[in-house]
Structure formats: structure tokens, C-alpha cells
Amino acid sequence: MKGLLSWVKSNLVKERPEMFIKDDSVRPGVLVLINDCDWELCGGLDAELEDKDVVVFISTLHGG
Questions:
Q1: Burial letters for 42-54: b for 16+ Cβ neighbours within 10 Å, e otherwise?
Q2: Cross-link Glycyl lysine isopeptide (Gly-Lys) (interchain with K-? in acceptor proteins) maps to which residues of the chain (predicted)?
Q3: Looking at domain 1-59, which CATH architecture does it have?
């Protein structure tokens, strides 16, 4: 997952990366699912991804 987060930040996030990444992880308020399972249950940043794994980022952050 560490490599994927770095790649996403460098290649996909075009504006306000601080809304997605904080330090070396996702910001609090961003839910990460690996194959429909919370990434914390899969090892978090240390989770090893395999071919055909599906990773979803869901923001629970919103304005007032």
C-alpha cells in the first residue's frame, strides 16, 4: 500500500494533495477498502497488494 499511495499522490492527485495524504498515510476521514475490507484489517500501510486486488478510497470529509 505504501507504494500505491505514493503513486496515487504523484500521478492522480492534481489539486490539494493534503486533503488525501497526511505524512505517509491517508488523512483521517478517508476510508480505504481492499477487496471490500477495511485496510486496517489487511495490514494498513504494510498490506501487500496482489494482481486483481481492488482498492477504493472513500472520503468522509465534507464542508459545513
A1: beeeebeeeeeee
A2: 64
A3: Roll (3.10)
SS3 letters for 2-53? HHHHHHHHHHCCCCCHHHCEECCEECCCEEEEECCEEHHHHCHHHCCCCCCC
Name the pLDDT band for 62 (thresholds 50, 70, 90).
confident
Single-letter amino acid, residue 8: V
- Collapsing DSSP to helix, strand or coil, 55 comes out as strand
Query: How close are the terminal C-alpha atoms of the chain, in Å?
Result: 31
Would you mind telling me the total number of residues written for the chain in this entry? 64
Using CA atoms, how far apart are residues 13 and 9, in angstroms rounded to an integer?
Answer: 5
Report angle CA 51, 56, 58 to the nearest 5 degrees.
170
